[in-house]
Write a structure and sequence with these properties.
By secondary structure, this protein is of the alpha+beta class. It is 26% helix and 27% strand. It has 14 helices and 29 strands. The strands form seven sheets. Strands 4, 5, 6, 7, 12, 13 and 16 form a seven-stranded antiparallel β-sheet that branches. The chain has a six-stranded antiparallel β-sheet with strand order 1-18-19-20-21-26, with helices on one face. A five-stranded antiparallel β-sheet has the order 3-15-14-8-9. A hairpin with a 2-residue loop joins β8 and β9. The longest helix is centred in the N-terminal third of the chain and has 19 residues. The two termini are 22 Å apart.
């Protein structure tokens, strides 16, 4: 047992008061035509500073794709569709939902029309900078056939991937042969993903996750429909990439076919006992014998290799609209010998990269600041957070203020939830921390009334392991520039996902879980919505660059919190909150007064912290 006196434990509650102005009620715009709202949004879309045009970009994507429709379907083209556009450095894929066939509708036609409309919008707008969310919105408006589908659109802009995702299609990012990031899944229930469509039971693009993630030359993007991710673990993909590389044929098209072939093989294996699909089914309470092995489905794989533009020729005018399926003919496959090698070396899923505290090559130096919203009857506010330097883990929660109308202090729920997280860390996790398991148990142990958002982040060797619910979250900065922002989960505008035991609340099963790679010198800025509703990423970049090299996370957290407070009291101008309100049809100017929690973590080699 380790000595408690040596633990660098910190649980902060700063109750200092600040000036407060009452919030203004939201006022709706007059009803306008859906199309005119879109056109106005597209025209006024802000140019982000890290978004470079195609000709100025230092990186490019080299694509390859492969599609295997599900065998035995009455529709031989299947229900997946995808496109790749080298002109726009953009890829997209969609998975039509098969339940429509019970009504005599081919959901594959919806997916194909949606992807085709994306290509039409890309060409028609003739913009050098692509905004995937706006592309998806207009393509959705133009898709008139019955049906529904998931969708994922990814564009390379500068040194970042700009992503919009709906449902259980998505992508993984591999660096040096190791998976460093996996997009999260959106679903209403097990095997029931979010899906775009015009029917009453479908969703629209407002539910989409939008995020940006930094990339560098040499990275590999593997995008796919759930036919890939339900049947292959990241560890199997890592082995495939390694073996294909050793065979001297590591090209996007080859790797796409190899991964599709392996996913197809796994989908028909009812004896292997465990797959990502069967593991998810077991987690939801289905016994393994019922949901055993893989899941037969259409399989779409798009592989993109990130390369420097210098020294590589980017051939424009090549837009592929990939609807025609490629038959599964393993005996004629040019990669069949590589396939044999991979099958011989296949491994079961393992938690790779999880190193104990003493083995870590990176550590977090952490500081925080908390400013409660003045004017509340509860001077403690409704935010809570914790820092465990021993476990290299941080957590924060934002109690949902609407409980105050019922005489309930949601801040107490947030505080008890965070306290339970700490208790679990120090009683059950001595070396490796799994944030999702910590959150699940803390949620079970939190009995007071109320609800809250939450975000827990742990550093495990060279990756952040994250679990997030609602509109708390974090940004990752590298060399002073924001390269990643966690997405927001909300049922509708200003109504985030929230943990609680009440019938209208959510439980940890809705949480986003993901891993993202980091390196020495990176800065993690985590916060509740009191920070992110009031401070743009560009403002944070200016502040970070002013104090870069000082390694004072406590100071940076305080400065960011004070900036958020200052912005929150403004009644004029644009803020992230007013901008989001405008996109939803509400008129709002200035900031949003709220509790403000900021936790800053500076990623450093361990010897810098001694």
């Amino acid at each position: 047992m380790f000595a408690w006196c040596c633990l660098a434990l910190r649980y902060q509650e700063n109750y200092s008061l600040r000036p407060y102005q009452d919030d203004e009620s939201l006022r709706s715009y007059p009803e306008e035509d859906e199309r005119s709202l879109f056109d106005e949004k597209f025209k006024n879309m802000p140019i982000q500073r890290d978004m470079k045009t195609l000709n100025k970009s230092s990186l490019m994507m080299n694509f390859g794709s492969f599609y295997i429709p599900k065998m035995g379907k009455s529709n031989p083209t299947g229900e997946d569709a995808h496109f790749t556009s080298k002109d726009h450095q953009t890829i997209g894929l969609a998975d039509g939902k098969c339940s429509w066939k019970k009504e005599g509708t081919d959901a594959g036609e919806y997916a194909r029309q949606l992807m085709n409309n994306c290509l039409v919008v890309l060409d028609a707008k003739d913009r050098e900078i692509v905004y995937p969310q706006l592309i998806l919105e207009e393509a959705y408006l133009n898709t008139k056939v019955d049906g529904s589908s998931t969708a994922c659109i990814i564009t390379l802009t500068g040194e970042s991937l700009n992503v919009v995702n709906v449902g259980d299609s998505g992508f993984m990012l591999f660096r040096n042969g190791i998976m460093v990031y996996k997009s999260s899944t959106q679903q209403h229930g097990f095997n029931y993903p979010y899906q775009l469509g015009k029917s009453d039971h479908c969703d629209d693009p407002r539910v989409a996750e939008e995020f940006i993630i930094g990339v560098r030359a040499g990275d590999w993007v593997v995008a796919g429909t759930n036919g890939l991710f339900d049947n292959m673990y990241a560890s199997e993909m890592e082995v495939a990439m390694k073996v294909v590389g050793e065979a001297g044929c590591l090209e996007p098209q080859v790797l796409a076919q190899v991964l599709a072939d392996l996913a197809f093989e796994n989908s028909l294996d009812y004896t292997q006992g465990i797959s990502p699909y069967s593991q998810a089914a077991l987690k939801e309470g289905y016994p393994i014998p019922i949901k055993c092995g893989g899941k037969p489905d259409d399989i779409t794989v798009i592989v993109a290799h990130i390369l420097p533009t210098q020294g590589h020729t980017l051939v424009l005018g090549n837009i592929e609209n990939s609807y025609s399926f490629q038959p599964y003919l393993p005996k004629k496959s040019p990669t069949v010998n590589v396939m044999d090698l991979i099958v011989a070396k296949r491994c079961k899923p393992i938690k790779k990269g999880m190193k104990t505290l003493n083995e870590r090559s990176l550590m977090m130096n952490i500081g925080s600041s908390y400013i409660p919203k003045k004017g509340k009857s509860n001077p403690k506010g409704e935010d809570a957070h914790f820092i465990s330097k021993h476990h290299q883990t941080i957590g924060l929660a934002d109690g949902v203020s609407s409980w105050a109308k019922k005489g309930i202090d949601a801040g107490e729920y947030a505080r008890q939830l965070m306290d339970n997280c700490l208790t679990i860390l120090y009683t059950k996790y001595m070396e490796i921390v799994y944030p999702q398991l910590v959150l699940q148990e803390a949620y079970s142990n939190t009995e007071v009334k109320g609800s809250s958002t939450t975000c827990i982040i742990t550093l495990t060797d060279e990756s952040l392991n994250v679990v997030n619910v609602g509109d708390s979250g974090f940004m990752l900065f590298r060399k002073g520039n924001m390269i990643y922002k966690s997405s927001t989960q909300q049922h509708r505008f200003n109504s985030p996902y929230q943990l609680g035991k009440n019938s209208h609340c959510d439980d940890p099963s809705v949480a986003e879980e993901f891993i993202i790679g980091v390196r020495g010198g990176d800065l993690v800025v985590a916060g509740t919505d009191g920070l992110f509703d009031n401070v743009f990423a560009s403002e944070m970049e200016v502040i970070i660059k002013q104090i870069v090299g000082t390694d004072q996370p406590e100071l940076l957290a305080q400065i960011l919190a004070e900036q958020a407070l200052e912005n929150s009291l403004k009644t004029e101008g644009v803020s992230p909150y007013s901008q989001a309100a405008s996109m939803e049809g509400y008129r709002r100017s200035g900031g949003k007064p709220d509790d403000i929690t900021v936790v800053v973590a500076h990623i450093l080699p361990p010897n810098h912290l001694l």
